[in-house]
## 1
Amino acid sequence: MKRADAVRATWLCTRQGFVAIRALARNGVLAAETVAVDVVPGFSAVAPYIADVAETCLAIRIARSDGADPLTALLDGWAAAGPVGRYWLAETVRDYAGRSAYQGLMTAVGKDPSSFPDRGADTSGRSRRVAWCNNILLAGFLDIRELAAPGGPLGEDDAALRRIEDIADTCHRLPCPDGLPAVLRPWLIRQELRGGWSSNSESGRRWCRERSEAGGLRPPAAIRRLIAPDRASG
């Protein structure tokens, strides 16, 4: 797979992962998907579907945040995925990253992993803003996976679907560093966040603020000002 295709595929999978999870939380599994992944339509199978997509995307984000080559990150996502996640990943790469990227991914999954680039310390364009975005995107997929996990709240409480929807809706509007030119990432992150923040629900904004302050994810001052409660009205 060409590196440009792999880079494009990784950030599109992140964005479309949140879009797909939001749609599943709102509408359940669509009838058109049931043949390909052998699940029943509606909400009875929505929890494992959401969990598998989140698991796939989480593996990609962890790999990229650790500095892995983008192709290696996609293969990490493939390895972590179940049948639903692999179906979703292949379809997403084909539909959004293009046929060249899709063919490259399908070729790569059948090869010996030792033939792929080593995990290197890709530090291009790193900053506190980049680190914050990566951490929040990771947190989004992590929290969604836990909500949808077997025995988790989604199996017992429909309110968990609204929680998942809020998290996914908020995260899909956050900047994804992989999709931004390295030299401009810190500036573009602030501009994209400024443009989309007020469109988030209050519960989504609250989740992002809480996650930003938890576990050492405290954002840099410029982002902290943008997501402060008094910015909620725009």
## 2
Amino acid sequence: MRRPLALPLLMALLLGSAACSSGGTKDTGTGDRTRETCQDLLGTAGEKWVKESSARQTGLVDVTDLKTAKAAFYDDARSWDPSSKAVSSFLPSELCRIVVQDQKPHTSRLSISYGASVFPFDSPFGEKSDVSGASGEETLVSVNSDVKLVVRKNNGSYDYAVYVKCRVPGTPATQETGVPLAGSMTDTLTGGTGTGPHLRYLLNSARVMAKAFACRNNPTVPTKLPAT
């Protein structure tokens, strides 16, 4: 089942109590679900990193909730036919979007999305191949047998992806490798912080999502990046 992204509605929320105390708009309580999701995905350290790496005050945009995202992932995983030669086309659910609060349009943002992967877990990420869909430089960070991180560089900017084997009940055998859970982070908000923090906090979000989506295979998502 294909589900479009929810229509964003800008919420005047600050990222954390520290930002709220600096003279910005106070949290009215509306959009608490979105704020809590962003906090969970990034973790305390990630929240602090975003705040300290952003030159201007940030706010949140209300996007898709975890319940809706989980239902969409389950529907897409269950629709997978291992015998089909057709190329899968799934839409991810945006779960966290942090923006510059007084900027319109919001060209500076950090976004985290999750959904069914259009690439199998064993795709040749990091190799010179069209299979993984990369048009520019691509680097694979193999975490373990359940998790892969990928850095993609296009036109001087970076996108970050994570792939997690996540078994959904009522799916064909090997669904967790044929249609793994895919997460992505795009960032035009934090300046010059390198790929390390992005991968670290994306990995944290993957651990949160594997639990929230109740992956039946109990994938091992570590708390730290592998040593390089």
## 3
Amino acid sequence: MEVESEPTETPEATESAESAEPSPEPGSAEDALPYLEAVAVGPAAATGEGLVHAREGSPAHGYLQYRADNAQALQDVGEVVEPLEVDVRENDAQLCQPSGCVTFGAFMYEDGLLSDFEVNGNTVSDNFHPGGGEFEEQGATVTVGSSYYSNDSNHLAVILYVEADAETSFEVTIADYRDPAGNLVLESPGTSAGNKVVGAGSSGVLLYTYAGAETGGSLELTLECFQGCEGAISGELPLN
């Protein structure tokens, strides 16, 4: 009589199972408290410390880095970033300041770390885009850190990282927005923060916001050279 042998996994199947990405699972607002406390903190360095509570590479991880960059740009121009109050409720949490509250909910986790959530009912992964284009010319480098569209205020916020080599200094003078179709629709940002003058051998973070802009598109930048480069440097940066 033949005895049926138990099926065995091939090395390829085992490797595939081990490398499979975990499926996001819903979790409680209470589990998200350490992350939310990091979001609520004003100083950029303290905000960044909360990254350990988010899954690396996830929208939640990128969103917190965006908040840290946002705070840094504001602080660099002397603005006081006040911490928010965190109120964890049964199914969600509110982060409040005197002007009003923002509701965080629908928390999703992977490997026990926060990966995605909603802000006022809008999913972060639908509105947040990490990275984007970069250009480097004559010792000046500008890179898109991230962009985030706010449904509530109907504006697009863009984080730029700027850097000058040891022989170069410049100023970011123009940051026009083009929509995804390439049309120039906003010839200047609604608001901006961060040190636009970048000294030799230094780097910084810039924040630009564009009212009524769409998710995606690009920025058309112009840099004015002070040292180590000539004339004006122009470049276009895709936002995702």
